[in-house]
Structures are given as structure tokens and as C-alpha cells.
Amino acid sequence: MIKELTQKKTNKLKEKEYTFLEHLEELRRRIIICIIFIFGFSFISFLNVHKIWKVLALSVGKLIFIKPTEAFMVDIKLSFFTGVFLAFPIILFQIWRFIEPAIENQNKIMFGILILFSYILFIFGTLFSFFIILPVTIKFLLNYAGNLLEPLISANEYLSFLIFFIFGFGIVFQLPIVVLLLTKTGLVSIDWFINKRKFVIFIVFIIAAIITPGPDIFSQIMVAIPTIILFEISILISKILSVKKEHVQEDRI
What we know:
Order of helices and strands: HHHHHHHHH
Shape: flat
Number of strands: 0
């Protein structure tokens, strides 16, 4: 009897270890797929890097390079980040496929929609920052010194600024997803967000001031207003979902 129990425990431990190794193998496979797509898109981007530069440099005009290797290295850097940007949908899909088995069936559709919505918001944030906010910000920064200083912008410095600027907007535009997840999981109530609305708006303006360099109030307002609108929309969606959940629970009772 004791021998049989010991054998069962040993088998269970082996099953747990095998399951854990399976998860590691699955994670490794997903990461490899992401890396392949990132490098594939990066290679394609490198072949068209001069066309990409023409689009990115619309707001500043001519760029310069200081070090002999800077032009080549900045092309590599731009190609890599372009590859990451283009591969972002595949990366999100691989993340979804990895976590999907751990999610309950009734929540899979909701999490799938959230991931898709997160990607749409990220793209919208990056496009909004590049085509709407960036030209205004660059114009202010270049004209700030007047005729005293001549702007000679390094390609490497401009690319670093651009990456921080665009990806910063993409992250800020994830606010509705954060609100929905917090309210859906019950970590924070909808009433808390409503009661702390003034505090949230204050934080939004602080983040807008950090993302938009320089004391350009107009750019900060253009960042803050869409973010506040997204916050209000996320509260409204959370309310609708909570009301539907209450109705479902009442019907079950």
C-alpha cells in the first residue's frame, strides 16, 4: 500500500515537472517566432531605410552625423525599431497564444478583445504623436533659440528622441486598457476612478509635460485632452460592462 502511494506521488511529480518543461518549451518556441519576425522585418526595413528616413525627417528637414560610424549604426538602430514596430501584432499574438490555455473559457473572448484593442490604441497613439504632436513640438523647439543658434540635428539624437516620443504616446494611450483591467478584476472600483477624476487628470497633465519636451503648453494640451477623453470612455465602458454583469447574475438567481 505504501509502495503504491509512493509510486503515485512520484508519477505526479514527474507529470508536474514535464508540464513545467512543456511550458518552457512553448515559451521558447514563441520567443523564437517573435525574434524571427523582428529580424525579418528589420532586414526589410534596412533595405528601405532611406525611404523611412525621408518620412521621419519631414518635421526637421536635413539631419547630420558626427562620427564616421554614426550613419551606419543609426540605420541599424532605425531598422531594428521599425522591425519591432512592424512585428508588434505578431508579438501580441504570440503572447496571447502562450497565456490562452491559462485563461478560463468565458474570459478568453474578453482578453482577446482587450489585446486587439490595446494594439489599436497603440497604433493610434503613435500615429497621433507623429502626425499631429511631433510637427508642432519640433517647430517650437527649433524656433526657440531664434536667430542666435543654428539647428544642426544629429540623426542619432533625433532617432532617440523620436523613439521615446512615439512609444511614449503608444504607452499613454493604453490608459483605457489599464482602467478596464483594474475594474474588471475588482482591484479598483469604478466609483474610485470617478471620485479621483481630478487627481487622474492632474497626473495626465504631468505625464503630458514629461512626454512633450519644452514648455510648449499647446502640445501638452493636445496630449492631455485625448488621454482624458480615453479615460472617460474607459469609465463609461466599465460601467456598461458592470451593469451587464449585474443583470446576468440577477438572471441566474
